[in-house]
Amino acid sequence: MAQTVTLIPGDGIGPSITDATVRVIEATGVSIDWDRREAGMAALQTHNTPIPDETLESIRVNRLALKGPLTTPVGTGFRSINVALRKEFDLYSNVRPARTIVPGGRYEGIDLVLIRENTEGLYSGVEHYVGIGTDPRAAAESVMIVTRFGVERILRYAFEYAVSHGRKKVTLAHKANILKYTQGLFLDIGREMAKEYEGRVEFEDRIIDATAMLLVMDPYRFDVIVTENMFGDILSDQIAGLVGGLGLAPGANIGKDAAIFEAVHGSAPDIAGKGIANPAALLLAGVMMLQHMDEHDAAGRIRAALEATIHERDSLTPDLGGSGSTDSFADAIIRRL
Ligand code: NAD
Questions:
Q1: Can you give the CATH number for the domain in which 275 is found?
Q2: How many A from CA of 283 to the centre of ligand 1?
Q3: Which residues are the active-site residues?
Q4: What b-and-e string marks burial along 142-151, b requiring 16 or more CB atoms within 10 Å of the CB?
Q5: Is 252 inside any structural domain?
Q6: Please, which residues have CB within 8 angstroms of residue 42's CB and are 6 or more apart in sequence?
Q7: Which residues touch 204 (CB under 8 Å, ≥6 apart)?
């Protein structure tokens, strides 16, 4: 039976990379009904809001969405759409795999996954100024909130991810040496939970700054990294850099009731409409979605076809050094499926 997936083409280069991604996924023969919905600037024009209720309702019903990049209107008072979606569906786990595809880069053979807590920590939104004397902004406070509930579910997700994806090790990156309460709680719960996985998943904990250095000096020692919100925000771009930047970086936002898959990059207004956007990051997000749907055969075939297309430098887009287009790149992948 076909599964229905909410498809949000998004803004800028979004519609063209979404079309290319859908074409490749459909060429595998997987049966998906795409429920196309608007969000972002596209929705602002038609629905007078960047996140129409019908789009939210579609995600609520289908529980799965593939999303093109959305332009966040600047200075209009609209909140970030991506943050709003994360909150609406309590998408607590942000999963960012980093795997070398383009040969000849700084590192070969990188294959690691970062799992970032997506709802708590310093991004809880508890911030204020403290006025002293005549200065209303003499000081400022941002509160790092860490709950046992939030920590347990992200760590559980990381360990279970390791088990189900055949990963060997989980590294918990923290700052418990300084932030003894918030980070200490994270670390204590991690050490305790690790005992349940003894013999199945190796566990280590590392201080965040040392983790950042080791990621550059010897990224091969890492497998799955789990960390709190802000550390994860920073490390996830760092690991994208290890494998050649954002052009090939997919991401998944996963909650109990819904999962949204997307490219890490934005709507690239500078190249929108030129037909040269690289569809690979969104396609890799589609591969993550297929894995989430247990369509492992289709996921594996797309990844292999994409890797072969890149290795043979067939019809690649200009950002990968080719002279092809979004469509010619997608066609070359489809030929190899
Ligand atoms: P961007 O990622 O859109 O672009 C940065 C640079 O990378 C540009 O030069 C662009 O041409 C290039 N680039 C990005 N994706 C590419 C692709 N697939 N193929 C080839 N080149 C590509 O970042 P930005 O310019 O800072 O942001 C533009 C808009 O996107 C903003 O409104 C921002 O809020 C939004 N944004 C959305 C998301 C999301 O929806 N997840 C993420 C980041 C930014």
A1: 3.40.718.10
A2: 16
A3: 123, 175, 209, 233
A4: eebebeeebb
A5: no
A6: 9, 10, 11
A7: 169, 170, 171, 172
11 lines ligand 1 (CB under 6 A): no
Distance 234 CA to ligand 1 centre (A): 17
pLDDT band for position 169 (cuts 50, 70, 90): very high
Residue owning the nearest CA to atom 39 of ligand 1: 69
pLDDT per residue over 100-142, tens digit each? 988 777 899 999 999 999 999 998 889 999 999 999 999 999 9
Q: Supply the range of the domain harboring residue 150.
A: 93-247
266 is a domain residue: yes
Q: In the prediction, which pLDDT does 104 show?
A: 78
C-alpha of residue 289 to centroid of ligand 1, in Å: 21
Ligand 1 site, residue 271, Cβ cutoff 6 A: yes
Would the pTM count as exceeding 0.85? yes
**pLDDT tens per residue, range 50-90:** 899 999 999 999 999 999 999 876 666 666 788 789 889 99
Residue 190 lies in a domain: yes
Q: What element of type H or E holds 117?
A: strand 111-117
Upper half-sphere CA count for residue 320 (Cβ side, 13 Å): 29
Within 8 A by CB and 6+ apart from 164, the residues are: none
Task: State the closest ligand 1 atom to the C-alpha of 263, by its place in the atom list counted from 1.
Answer: 41
CA of 325 to the centre of ligand 1 (A): 17
> Whose CA is closest to atom 12 on ligand 1?
268
What is the Cα–Cα distance from 112 to 238, expressed in whole angstroms?
Answer: 12
